[in-house]
Amino acid sequence: MSTQRPRRIGVLTSGGDAPGMNACLRAIVRTAVYHNLEVIGFQRGYCGVLLGEYLTLDARSVANIIHRGGTILGSARCPEMHHVEGLERAASTLKGLGIEALLVIGGNGSMQGALSLAEHWSGQIIGLPGTIDNDLGGTDWTIGFFTALDTALDAADRLRDTAEAFDRIFLLEVMGRHAGWIALFTGIGGGAEEILIPEHAYDPDTIVKRIKESRSRGKRSHIIVVAEGACEGGVSRVAADIEGHGFETRTCVLGHVQRGGSPVALDRYLATELGVFAVQAALDGKSHVLAGKQGKTNRLVPLNEALDGNNQPPMHLLEINRFLAT
Amino acid sequence: MSTQRPRRIGVLTSGGDAPGMNACLRAIVRTAVYHNLEVIGFQRGYCGVLLGEYLTLDARSVANIIHRGGTILGSARCPEMHHVEGLERAASTLKGLGIEALLVIGGNGSMQGALSLAEHWSGQIIGLPGTIDNDLGGTDWTIGFFTALDTALDAADRLRDTAEAFDRIFLLEVMGRHAGWIALFTGIGGGAEEILIPEHAYDPDTIVKRIKESRSRGKRSHIIVVAEGACEGGVSRVAADIEGHGFETRTCVLGHVQRGGSPVALDRYLATELGVFAVQAALDGKSHVLAGKQGKTNRLVPLNEALDGNNQPPMHLLEINRFLAT
Amino acid sequence: MSTQRPRRIGVLTSGGDAPGMNACLRAIVRTAVYHNLEVIGFQRGYCGVLLGEYLTLDARSVANIIHRGGTILGSARCPEMHHVEGLERAASTLKGLGIEALLVIGGNGSMQGALSLAEHWSGQIIGLPGTIDNDLGGTDWTIGFFTALDTALDAADRLRDTAEAFDRIFLLEVMGRHAGWIALFTGIGGGAEEILIPEHAYDPDTIVKRIKESRSRGKRSHIIVVAEGACEGGVSRVAADIEGHGFETRTCVLGHVQRGGSPVALDRYLATELGVFAVQAALDGKSHVLAGKQGKTNRLVPLNEALDGNNQPPMHLLEINRFLAT
Amino acid sequence: MSTQRPRRIGVLTSGGDAPGMNACLRAIVRTAVYHNLEVIGFQRGYCGVLLGEYLTLDARSVANIIHRGGTILGSARCPEMHHVEGLERAASTLKGLGIEALLVIGGNGSMQGALSLAEHWSGQIIGLPGTIDNDLGGTDWTIGFFTALDTALDAADRLRDTAEAFDRIFLLEVMGRHAGWIALFTGIGGGAEEILIPEHAYDPDTIVKRIKESRSRGKRSHIIVVAEGACEGGVSRVAADIEGHGFETRTCVLGHVQRGGSPVALDRYLATELGVFAVQAALDGKSHVLAGKQGKTNRLVPLNEALDGNNQPPMHLLEINRFLAT
């Protein structure tokens, strides 16, 4: 771990993009500039490192982006980073450019990539949690989660309007292949009758039983929030299972709509705090750490620990939803 | 056509619900109360007429609903209205309750129902255009279209954020089995590269050709807005056709999300104007007419004319989109 | 009036900015490029013409702005345009640059400026209605009105939430020094108890009388929408008049918040249609006209006529609001 | 402290209303019903206790309110609670109704009232943090803060659009007589150039100096977020101080708009978690505590401690904003 203060840092956004990445870039660049660091912004995630595609960023480069969705650097998944050749090539770019610290904004895969890269490159690496999935260890919240959540909740609210006018069972598929955070919080916030998440075994019989019970009590509409990875077959299977019992369903698949939009205040706050904090960590010579938020405190957590202990959603919410959504 | 002023009127919301139906109910009820009319609100569309399920509505019944999605009366599609028995039964309820005029808020099917009912019941019938599809003749705009449109546009904007970060082709399916209004205006407003609507023949070869051309010019992301009824097979077929040429696509199906939400100002304005106008028409002894808006003028159009000449979307928008979305 | 097809056109946004100005610029530039015209974008309204500050705009210059508030060209009020020297200087820039047609997006003042300029410059001048005030003659709607309206309505809805929780009289000041459109439609859409606009004489006694009556009927909250120019002294005077009778009031001044925000679909549609239409008008050799929308039809109206007959808001809405907001 | 399980509980919402109060009521009532408790909902805060105005609430009473702003119970400030007579009267109502535990949703004043009441009534008292100000000790966040913040941030974003089009200094007054949370987070999230809060001494000279400096660097627009209580005289004084140096300002006063609106997901989540938690605390015989959230943990904190140590906003945000908003 170097205690040398870096003079040139690199930054990239990687993996699925998340609202707030731009706010984080702004904080990183302006903090760096304030400390007389040069900032290289690699384009399209690790691809930009591999291919040497980058921009030199100054304070003006990040003007007027704090409220914008997406990422001005672009993002990508970069399969070459799973191979030694790719990692060597990336390391070579970084060395060639004289990058002393690399700041990586992304999710699980991006942090894995950072650790792999660290085996081939001796510079400092600081991770920042940027993913709508909120599934990274070492931080309570990830940048983008709050906005994606409000997007999904808005859809749930709109479905409720029409569900009350009509008698139907609505299925709302939200993102989350491996993590139920968005589904869980959308379901709790939207007053959904059922919430299906990857962390909880899918049980169609119980769901159908509960639909029948509530119909017999006079309740005519149902909203079921389904995480992408709630079960094999996803929302189509859930729909088929329910329709198999004679109920009419309607499905809404939000998809990438959840990745976009102007970040809500909490995502901008988190992005800004962690951006400043990460640059300070770089200046302090830290490396192989994730800059995260735990309670009210900014914390540096070893990257491998952040990856080991992923962020489990609060499963008790499923239980309390049983008596809340009656 | 009776010139007798009605003392008791009925109102119902029918077909797919639309934002602004509640604002329209409020205007109808309060205008009626102001003119000393009693108002019976039938529940769940024509089903409430058939089954004699209704509420007596006064000025307080419609307090604090102007901004709410859905409809406090509920809505339904009512297949019994396609049969003489159903129509007779509905007429019988209306006679029994002493309803002198019936106000029907809905779309095409609801107006067809009104005309069928008119063959079995001699009271006045006034239609109000309430549907997100904007496909009724006799009026420039229908209540609910503007809100549904902004919901779809918000989704398109969010996709654009992420489309720019990533290289992908996004398909956004919006409502419109027979009418391309939502798709067309979402596509124009969202700057979509392609807009597929039922009124225009689906031509996958041209679409793929244009994707290839724009890729060769360096453009990496594409948004294609697809009306439900744009082609047989819908958005899944479009996705398959494009992926068949080696492009990666992501699909978002907005579905009933478009029916909900607090109505935007234009829908509330239209709902209010037409609600007041329809009650005045009833007081004036009009019948078998649709209360519509043409330009700045409220107009009564014979219901059968409104159904004959459906509201064609402005097809020239497809042409100008060719040079706008470059 | 030249029938020569222009090869170089200028465009500017002037006066108070309005959501949708960017969408209009996009449509103008891309239509012009499609027709092989060069486009000069003057910065900060007529100031840019006076000072020769401009950008050359191509199809890429207007990428990704259709959904953005503000105007990429900037806007300004330019007092020099009231003097012959200023007008001569502006004309001189236009001649020097070889501009054959000038497209001006703005409100009343901007169109006045265009007519004044026309006395000193012989090129074509086409106006486009861009103002949140909706007070231009010759067009049913102006670009920006719909978005400003929804912004104000959202504020009214939020006030209603808290007004119902508490017993208070809320005053919501919205824009409109000379035109009551925003106040009128916000009040109708928001279910406001009172709507005060410049076009209707301010009468505090009647307002206080109605507050007292509705209090005696048990109604405890009131929302009063006040256009800036509803009376001399504005919202402060209204508050003072009401508090003078022992009622507690709370005031909200929305101000320039109404000028910003991503344009709603209708504003983008209007901006796009009129942008295309204005360029076509320029190609057709038209001049001294406003490109407006009347009903479903695009129309060219002589600029002086558009300024003479300003767009009067539908005053009957004030009357129907008396029985709607009970 | 009773260890007897209560059979009848009371609940009220008090002080300034906050988005999420309804979601909290829903959680409280449904959790209570699930545990076979009766729930009395007092209307208009402590006024309802004093006057014996209440509703009996069951699971249906709180249907379809999770997403609504305001509070179905109404709220009020109740000066009688500062006097022994009022407190005695309130205690008498509670005894008469056989209330065993009282749940109070509100801010500082409401918790003070609860403690005063506790001197006259021996039942259990559980506080829940419901205020947009986020200034209660014992909890990281209060119900309503997140929504109010996003409302204010939306206004800041809209001002930014127009600020960039024009050259002006915009002042945005947000709520916070004694607490700078909303202003601080709005300023950080909105990229405001200045943030004025009650916790930091107002220094007009420094502000003007910085405006002059940034103008000399070519920056033409400024947004200054001002908490109501940032200085004596509030936003009008700030405007006067700045205009005194020859700058043109525009002021927006958001006011009670910040109290309304559908709660964002985080407020609904917090309201739901704490509602369930508070009922469980009542069942466990707890009293004189605030049900709060610290990090990811629900915590009971003695009410007097919660009031002593109020929640100080993160002042370092002011410092980092100096180099972020350049």
Automatic annotation (TrEMBL), chains A, B, C, D:
Q: Which is one Gene Ontology cellular component term of this protein?
A: 6-phosphofructokinase complex
Location(s) in or outside the cell:
Cytoplasm
Binding positions for Mg(2+)?
A: N108
Domain of life, per UniProt, equals Bacteria
One GO molecular function term? metal ion binding
One annotated GO biological process: fructose 1,6-bisphosphate metabolic process
Q: Which reaction does it catalyse?
A: beta-D-fructose 6-phosphate + ATP = beta-D-fructose 1,6-bisphosphate + ADP + H(+)
Which residues are catalytic? D133
> In what way is its activity controlled?
Allosterically activated by ADP and other diphosphonucleosides, and allosterically inhibited by phosphoenolpyruvate.
Q: ATP-binding: present as a keyword of the record?
A: yes
Q: In which pathway does it act?
A: Carbohydrate degradation; glycolysis; D-glyceraldehyde 3-phosphate and glycerone phosphate from D-glucose: step 3/4
Write the Enzyme Commission number(s) for this entry. 2.7.1.11
Query: Which keywords, in A-to-Z order, does the entry hold?
Result: Allosteric enzyme, ATP-binding, Cytoplasm, Glycolysis, Kinase, Magnesium, Metal-binding, Nucleotide-binding, Transferase
Pfam families reported for this sequence: PFK
The UniProt annotation places substrate binding at T131, I132, D133, R168, M175, G176, R177, E228, R250, H256, V257, Q258, R259
What is the purpose of this protein? Catalyzes the phosphorylation of D-fructose 6-phosphate to fructose 1,6-bisphosphate by ATP, the first committing step of glycolysis.
Q: Family per UniProt? A: Belongs to the phosphofructokinase type A (PFKA) family. ATP-dependent PFK group I subfamily. Prokaryotic clade 'B1' sub-subfamily.
How is the quaternary structure described?
Homotetramer.
Name of the molecule in the record: ATP-dependent 6-phosphofructokinase
**What organism does this protein naturally occur in?**
Thiocystis violascens (strain ATCC 17096 / DSM 198 / 6111)
